[in-house]
Amino acid sequence: MIDKTYWASDLPLPLSPSDDDALEYKFHLKKGTTLLLGCTKKLIPLSDRQLDIEPWYEADTVIVGDWVENKHFYTNIMIDGGLCFTKELCDSIIQMASKNSKVLIARVFDYKLDSMKIADYFPNFADFEIEPTYTFKTEKEYTFYIWEF
To answer: N or C end of the chain, less CB within 10 A?
Structure first.
């Protein structure tokens, strides 16, 4: 069930990934299982499971829980914008993914956009404790970071 009253269920571009962004995620996925941290609409079809503390919809694939407490292995872990909340959360997610996946794919905003409600940390390559394997800046306000563990 989709909760249309939840503020993040229908984010506008660029807060929500575009079709091209979804293709970037798909391109970097390795064969196997995929966990989506959060419930980003455009990325749900690319994932086997979605993990979130307060998901905005119900489905058999949704796991209610904290991102950093994931203990299950997935070949791929994807996150969209979630590394921009705090440095501590960013580092914890990367540490968790390094133990529980082969690949972490993240779309990370480069700075705070006027339409952002809860993002306060905007990492760049030098900020990561575990360096990304690949990175590329888009023509928009964000960068893709891919870690292969």
So the answer is: N
Domain layout of the chain by residue ranges: 19-148
Please say whether the beta carbons of 27 and 125 come within 8 A. no
Question: Which pTM was predicted?
Answer: 0.92
Q: What is the pLDDT of residues 95-123, one digit of tens each?
A: 999 999 999 999 999 999 988 888 999 99
Strands (E), 74-148: 76-80, 103-109, 134-137, 142-148
Instruction: Write the burial class of residue 104 (CB in 10 Å: 0-12 exposed, 13-18 middle, 19+ buried).
Output: buried
* Superfamily of domain 19-148 in the CATH hierarchy: Vaccinia Virus protein VP39 (3.40.50.150)
Strand partners, 75: none
Q: Is the pLDDT at 26 greater than 80, yes or no?
A: yes
Show the DSSP H helices in 44-148 as ranges.
Answer: 87-100
